[in-house]
Amino acid sequence: MSRPAVHTFTYAERPDLAARTGEVEDTMASFMGHGEVALRYWHLLRPELPELQLVLWDEERDAVVGHARTVPARMAEGLPGGVDDMLEAWFGEGGRPEPDVLSAMVAVVDRGRQGEGLSTHLVEAMRGLAREHGYPALVAPVRPTWKERYPLIPMERYARWTREDGLPFDPWLRVHAKLGAELLEVCPASMRIEASVAEWKEWTGLVFPDDGDYLVPGALVPVRVEAGHGVYVEPNVWMRHAA
Question: Which stretch of DSSP H or E encloses residue 144?
């Protein structure tokens, strides 16, 4: 029997493939790459924790079709604050926490390969990383993919929407649920992005002529504009997978 065409490797195992993650066409809005904390620390995941970062490779096409990032975290005293908080805790100036879980940070599948089950492949691989490194669980501040369609609905309500079969309404939450993940609680301030209205205009193509809340394509909640600056505080949903 031939091997499956799609494989996951850590950055440590295949640095040659890790160097090609730029081939993956992301589906997130461009402003998502401009959080202050993420800009300060995100680039450190590759050199400092290569054994905990994943690349998804299509062997038949020799194409990098996805990637995922994880970081050690601690939840014994309560869940972390989200993506920004975990990056700051691990790479910031304070002492690192004694990790007791592995946390997913992001999982990206190429825009042209959506619908092939590759996201499931990545989640399973992250759960496998947790197990291999001795963590009892993989937690994830999940970014629901359809929440941007309902930016005025509180995340606490949206996260509990279900289909007739009882599974989550949101496709990305549903992927995790099908793999046995438990929905824990909403992460109200996972990432903060603050910039001038000129920068927001460049990222979104919108104009912001007055103070107020604006619905921005790709944002899960409104962007608040005051005194020439726009602030976006993104909520996520904490889910937990037993490793």
Answer: none
The amino acid at residue 46 is R
SS3 state of residue 44: helix
Report whether 203 contacts 34 (CB < 8 A).
yes
CA 73, CA 94: separation in Å to the nearest integer? Answer: 14
What is the second-level CATH architecture of the domain 6-191+234-242?
Answer: 3-Layer(aba) Sandwich (3.40)
Mean pLDDT for the stretch of residues 32-52: 96
The domain ranges of the chain are 6-191+234-242
**12-29 residue pLDDT tens:** 999 999 999 999 998 889
How many whole angstroms separate alpha carbon 184 and alpha carbon 165?
20
Q: Is the pLDDT of residue 3 over 50?
A: no
Question: Hey, is 139 helix, strand or coil?
Answer: strand
pTM (2 d.p.): 0.93
What is the mean pLDDT of the segment spanning 176-187? 97
CA 17 to centroid of chain Cα atoms: 20
CA neighbor of 54 nearest in space, from 108, 113, 110: 108
Q: Residue 83 in contact with residue 220, Cβ under 8 Å?
A: no
